[in-house]
C-alpha cells in the first residue's frame, strides 16, 4: 500500500477521535474487548497490529532502543513517569519533552551522573543565539535534576548554580487604545472574533483557557474555571457588553468560540493562529497574549493590588503580578509625592509676583532708580 488511509475501514475496526482531536483506531468484535491498533490503516505498523488482533494475539509495538540503567535516557524516562512530571500543564510537558528528546538524541546512552555544571553551561552556550529558548531548556533541566536530587539519584544538582542567559525583551506587545478601536470597528458584535476579543480582555484568561471556555463555566454573569497552565481557580464577573456579545454570537454547542467550520478549536495553537489572522485583517499586528497584558495593565492602573491581580489572572506567584503593579504604583506614587513636595515648598517659600504682575507705581520707582 502507499501509506494513505483507505476510505473503508477493515473488518472490526472502529475509528474514534479523542478530546484533543487525535484520531485513533480500535479492533473490536461485537461487544468484546477493545484493542488499540497502532498507526493508521494502510501502514505497515497498522497491518501488523491488525493481523495480530485477528489471530487473537497481542501485538507488541517496537518502542525502539531500551534505556540502559543510569543512562540519561533512563533518568528522563523515570522522570516522565513521576508525579512531578504529571503535575505540569500539557503545554509545559510538550515543551520540556522536546528538549529532553534533543538531550536523548545527543547523549542518551551516557551516564547521567557524569553531567556537570560545565555540561549544562555548554548546552546553554550552544543555544545562546536564542536566549529565551536556552532559558526554557535550563528550566526543563532544573526540573529534571531537582526531582533526581529529591529521589537520591544524584548527589548534587548540576543546574543549581547555573544562571539564566540575560536578554532584554518585553515579550508580546501590549494592545493600545487605537488597536482596540480598529479591531472593534472591523469586527462588530455578533461576530466570533469580536466575542473572542471581549472574553479575552474582560476576563484576562490565556488562549489555553479561552478556547475551552463555554456556558458550563458561566453562572449568571459570573465566569469561573480552573486554568490549564497553573491549575488556579479564577472567578470574574462579566459586564453587560460581554454578555450581549455572547448572546449575539451564533454557535452550535456549549463552547463560546468555534472555528469557521462550526466546531470548537482543538488546541490553543489553532485558536491563537485564528485570532492572529483576525487581528491582521483588522490592521492590528498584535496577539491574544498582548490583549491579556492590556487587561492586566488596565487593572493595575485602576488600583488593583498584587493579590487581586493574582486572583483574576491565575498567577501562582507575586512576581508576575508585580510586573504590572510596580509600574502603576510608581506612576501613582510619583504624582502623589510631587504634590507633597509642592505643598511643603508653599509652606517655606514666600510667593513672589511675576514680572507682568508688578504694580504700575512700583515699575515707575524702579525705572526712576535706573535713570538716576
Sheet with most strands: 3 strands, antiparallel
What is the count of distinct domains? 3
Parts with pLDDT < 50 across at least 5 consecutive residues:
362-372
Tally the helices: 15
CATH top level of the largest domain? Mainly Alpha
SSE string, helices as H and strands as E: EEEHHHHHHHHHEEEHHHHHH
Number of strands: 6
Residues in β-strands, percent: 5-15%
SSE-based structural type: mainly alpha
Task: Estimate the helix proportion, in percent.
Answer: 40-55%
Domain Tyr recombinase: 170-338
Biased composition (Basic and acidic residues): 363-372
Keywords: DNA integration, DNA recombination, DNA-binding
Family: Belongs to the 'phage' integrase family.
Q: How do the helices and strands line up, and which of them pair or pack?
A:
Blueprint: E1 13-17, E2 23-27, E3 35-37, H1 44-54, H2 72-79, H3 83-86, H4 90-107, H5 117-126, H6 131-150, H7 177-186, H8 192-203, H9 207-210, E4 218-219, E5 222-226, E6 233-237, H10 240-248, H11 268-281, H12 288-301, H13 306-313, H14 318-348, H15 360-371
Antiparallel strand pairs: 1-2, 2-3, 4-5, 5-6
Descriptors:
three-stranded antiparallel beta sheet, DNA integration, Integrase-like_cat_sf, DNA-binding, single chain, 372 residues, hpI Integrase, Chain A, 50% helix, Integrase_recombinase_N, DNA recombination, disordered C terminus, 15 helices, mainly alpha
Amino acid at each position: 500500500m502507499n501509506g494513505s488511509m483507505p476510505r473503508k475501514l477493515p473488518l472490526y475496526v472502529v475509528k474514534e477521535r479523542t478530546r484533543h482531536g487525535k484520531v485513533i483506531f480500535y479492533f473490536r468484535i461485537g461487544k468484546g474487548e477493545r484493542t488499540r491498533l497502532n498507526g493508521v490503516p494502510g501502514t505497515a505498523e497498522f497491518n501488523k497490529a491488525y493481523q495480530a488482533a485477528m489471530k487473537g494475539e497481542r501485538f507488541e509495538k517496537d518502542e525502539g532502543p531500551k534505556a540502559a540503567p543510569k543512562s540519561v535516557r533512563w533518568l528522563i524516562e523515570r522522570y516522565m513517569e513521576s508525579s512531578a512530571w504529571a503535575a505540569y500543564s500539557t503545554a509545559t510537558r510538550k515543551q520540556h519533552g522536546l528538549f529532553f528528546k534533543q538531550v536523548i538524541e545527543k547523549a542518551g546512552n551516557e551516564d547521567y551522573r557524569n553531567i556537570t555544571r560545565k555540561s549544562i553551561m555548554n548546552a546553554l552556550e550552544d543555544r545562546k543565539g536564542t536566549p529565551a529558548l536556552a532559558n526554557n531548556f535550563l528550566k526543563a533541566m532544573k526540573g529534571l535534576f531537582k526531582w533526581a536530587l529529591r529521589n537520591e539519584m544524584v548527589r548534587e544538582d548540576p543546574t543549581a548554580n547555573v544562571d539564566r542567559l540575560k536578554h532584554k525583551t518585553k515579550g508580546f506587545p501590549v494592545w493600545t487604545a487605537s488597536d482596540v478601536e480598529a479591531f472593534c470597528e472591523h469586527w462588530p458584535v455578533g461576530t466570533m472574533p469580536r466575542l473572542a476579543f471581549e472574553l479575552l480582555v474582560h476576563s484576562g484568561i490565556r488562549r489555553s483557557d479561552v478556547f475551552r471556555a463555554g456556558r458550563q463555566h458561566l453562572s449568571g454573569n459570573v465566569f469561573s474555571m480552573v486554568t490549564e497552565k497553573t491549575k488556579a481557580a479564577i472567578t470574574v464577573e462579566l459586564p453587560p457588553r460581554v454578555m450581549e456579545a455572547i448572546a449575539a454570537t451564533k454557535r452550535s454547542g456549549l463552547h463560546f468560540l468555534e472555528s469557521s467550520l462550526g466546531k470548537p478549536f482543538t488546541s490553543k495553537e489553532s485558536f491563537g493562529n485564528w485570532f492572529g489572522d483576525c487581528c491582521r485583517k483588522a490592521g492590528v499586528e498584535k496577539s491574544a497574549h498582548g490583549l491579556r497584558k492590556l487587561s492586566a495593565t488596565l487593572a493595575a492602573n485602576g488600583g488593583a493590588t498584587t493579590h487581586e491581580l493574582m486572583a483574576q489572572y491565575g498567577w501562582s506567584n507575586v512576581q508576575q503580578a508585580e510586573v504590572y503593579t510596580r509600574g502603576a504604583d510608581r506612576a501613582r506614587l510619583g504624582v502623589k509625592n510631587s504634590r507633597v513636595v509642592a505643598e511643603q515648598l508653599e509652606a517655606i517659600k514666600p510667593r513672589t509676583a511675576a514680572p507682568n504682575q508688578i504694580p504700575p507705581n512700583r515699575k515707575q520707582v524702579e525705572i526712576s532708580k535706573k535713570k538716576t
